[in-house]
Each structure stands twice: as structure tokens, then as C-alpha cells.
Amino acid sequence: MDLRSLVPGTAGLAGVAADALVLVLAGGQAQTLEPPLAALLSESVKAGDFEFKAGRTLYLHRPAGLKAPRLVLAAAADASPKAFKAAVAAALSALKPLGVRHAAVALAAAPLSEAGVLDDRHAEVLALAVSEATYLYRHTKPSAGDGSKLQKVSLVSDKATANAIKKGLARGQAIGEGVTLARECANRPGNHATPTFLAEQAQALAAQYGFKVEVLGRKEVEKLGMGAFIGVAQGSEEPLRFIVLRYEGAPRASAPLVLVGKGITFDSGGISIKPAAEMDEMKFDMSGAASVLGTFRAIGEIGPKVNVVGLIAACENLPSGRSIKPGDVLRSMAGHTIEVLNTDAEGRLVLCDALTYAERFKPAAVVDIATLTGACVIALGAQRSGLFCPDDELAAKLLQAGESALDPAWRMPMDDEYDEGLKSNFADMANVGPRAGGAITAAMFLKRFTKAYRWAHLDIAGTAWKGGAAKGATGRPVALLTHFVLSHTR
């Protein structure tokens, strides 16, 4: 996608040369516009065709006085990046079935020359809105067609903000490409997106951006003593993969950030098998791993001055004669024994060994990302990811990154008392606690393996994908993670 900053000539918006002009109207009232646009807006409002209500759009063909042959009016609740993105998304939806190849987008919240209205944040979310609107999954669906015809989008600004707009567009495009990669990986069915496939994606990123990559198989993982990870993987014919990606943008002595992704490429629940309804959506159980790959794609494009390590523990969780059983006891890489009370609580088993492996990097901070619990979906729904973090400063950085990226999280409690539910009569700990507070006890389980460093856990079970008619991966929380990484740039 060709994304550009556009400074209009003396004719203003009326003279913008594009297949379509998108005019985002913020603030709930008529704005100071050039005569042709002011007249069109006034007529549309008077006729009842348009109102200043967030989400409303109006398409006008061959509008009088405009060089652009198409005009879309889109109402925004206010001039914030969040409202601007929603309005742009609605406008792009209106243009989608048309033959528009170049769209110009303008924000009419105040005169374009007034500082502080349009900035790099608007440019970033515009790029993300375009990326989301033009994404089309077609890998296993040849009938999906060619998708959107849109090839170029220009954001109208003045000379004073043009450079900031260009930077925001570049950042947004990089994050958008990362989100698209995460969506593409997660959307592929389990017989395509295997642990080996995830390793191949990591290797392709390493080749493209100069990352260091290492892929460990069963023998190497056994030598490391990752008994919990192996226990989950042993029920499947697909070989496990433990993937290590390294981006070195700062001096070697600089402690890295470590991102740990859960990579269960299909989760049947194992012997504690899931209900058949919607089990197909368990191909999305590797969305944490997908988000790590997507974040590396984004930082590969941006090139921040920070060191980042990505760890992905990838395998399937299937029932077979070799599968772990309820009541089995596994020994983790950290040496702790774990009683498996429920084989469908497998994500924490693969993550605990990955979190132990992270110690060797002497990290500045570790963040694990996982579609870990249905309990988090019940608690927070699909709007915010669950953030579990005992470190206030680290939690604040992640929350701020989520707000800046429009990819929000919500901090959940981690009181010591929740840890009591993990006691076992036959091992150092059980892999599940009581049903109540299940997302919290899952986080408390992981916390036991993170004493050597600052750590946070993102439960994305409610935000990583959508079900129903809109079924598909969202690519979250790539935007949050990218902003988190950028916040550590030196």
C-alpha cells in the first residue's frame, strides 16, 4: 500500500486529485469548510441524508465543485485518534465495493493550519485502518477473489505537520504489516500452520531483516529438561519446535526485552477433550506466537535501538496413546514437579519452560502472550486483553503502550492468596486451581517461574480472534507490543 502525506494546493480540498475524498467530520457540528464542501454538507444535513453521529457515512457521486469524483462524509465522535480511526474504517467500508484506487483522507475538526489537530497518531491509526480494511485471507480459499482495489491512500495535512504525518504513516504501516502477518499465521488451519510452519516463518523473518534465529527440536528440548513442554507435545505426530528470534538494535551489553509466545497450533484439550462446538477455533491457540512474529516484523521495519528476544514454544495438544493424562506428574525445566489435573490447561505448561529458558538472557523484562484462559474472556470480553503483572512500573508501561496503540489491556489482581489454589498432594504444584478466578490462578502458576526477572503476562483469549460471521484473527496485541518495545528505544 502506498501511504503518503498530501499538502493541498491553493484550491484546497476541492482541488485534491484522487479517486475519492474522505472527509472525516469531528465534533458533532458543521465545520468551517470551503464553499463547495460546505454547500454539500449543508444540503445533506438538511435533507436528512447525513447527521453528525459517530459511525454515520454518506457517499456522494460526482459532487459539484470537487475534483475528486467521489466524496464520503464520515462522522467521528471527536478528533481523537480512536474516533478518527473508527470514522476512516466506516468510510473505507463504503468505498470497498467501488473501483477506488486512490483515496485522500482529510480531518475537518478545525482549519488544517491549526496546530494540534492532526498529528502522527492520526497518521498511524489511518495506516492501521487501511491495513485492516484491505486484508483478505485467501491461502486456503481461492474463491476469495482479489479483494480491495485500493492501492494508495493520502492523508491531507498542512506543511507544518507533513513530516510528522510521514513518520506516523511509516510507523503505522510497519505495525499494520506485523498485524497482517499475525492474522495470516493464526487464520491458517491447523494442518497448514504447524509448529514447523511457525519455525519457517521465523526463519523467513530472520533472512529478511537480519535477525538471529535458532530452532530447537525434540532432542535439544530434552537436553534442556523441558519436561512440561514435552509432556504437552508428546500426544501429537507433529514435531515440537522451540523457536528463538533475536533482534539486536542496541549494544550487546544492553539487556533485552523478551517476548514469549504460546504456540499451540491446535488445542483439542488432550485427554480432557474440549466440546466439539467451536473446537475449530482452537487453531487460534497459537495467537500468542503469531503476535511475537508480527511484532518482530514490525520492529524489523522500524529498526528501534533496543534488543529484543522472541521465544515461541510450539506444538499441538492432541489425545493419543502417548498423551499425558489427568493425574500425571511432569518435571519442568526449573526442576519443579507439576501435577496435571486438566490436560486442557496446557498453555501454562509450555510457557513455564519457555519462561525458565528466558533467564539466560538476563532480560530487562519478560512479557508472555497467550490465549490462556476462557475465564479471561468471561472477565473482560473482547475489548481488552488481561494484564497480569506484579511490577507497577512495568504494568504502567504496558497499559500506556496499549492505550497509545488503541490495543488496550486491563490490569488484573495477583494477590498472594490466589496462589493457594495451586497446591497439590502429589507434586510441587497443580496445573489448575479452582474454577473461580481461573485467569488469575493461571497467571499465578506462571509467576512461580519468573522470580529471576521483571515479568508480565498478557491473556489474549478474548482479543486474539473473533467468532461468528466475522470469524478470524485480529492480530492483537502486535500493536501494543510494538509500542511497548518502542517505549524502550534509547
Give the key terms:
21% strand, six-stranded mixed β-sheet, alpha/beta, elongated, eight-stranded mixed β-sheet, 490 residues, single chain
How are the SSEs placed, and which strands pair?
Elements: E1 2-6, E2 20-26, H1 35-46, E3 57-61, E4 70-76, H2 81-95, E5 102-108, H3 120-134, E6 152-156, H4 162-187, H5 195-209, E7 212-216, H6 218-224, H7 227-233, E8 241-248, E9 257-267, H8 287-302, E10 307-317, E11 329-331, E12 337-339, H9 347-357, E13 365-370, H10 374-380, E14 385-388, H11 392-404, E15 409-411, E16 429-430, H12 438-447, E17 455-459, E18 465-466, E19 472-473, H13 478-486
Parallel strand pairs: 1-6, 2-4, 2-5, 5-6, 9-10, 9-13, 12-16, 13-17, 14-15
Antiparallel strand pairs: 3-4, 7-8, 8-10, 11-12, 14-17, 18-19
Helix pairs in contact: 2-3, 3-4, 4-8, 5-8, 7-9, 8-13, 9-12, 11-13
> What is the number of E strands?
19
Structural class: alpha/beta
Mean pLDDT: 95
Low-confidence stretches: 110-116
Report the portion of residues in β strands: 15-25%
Number of helices: 13
Q: Ends: how far apart? A: 30 Å
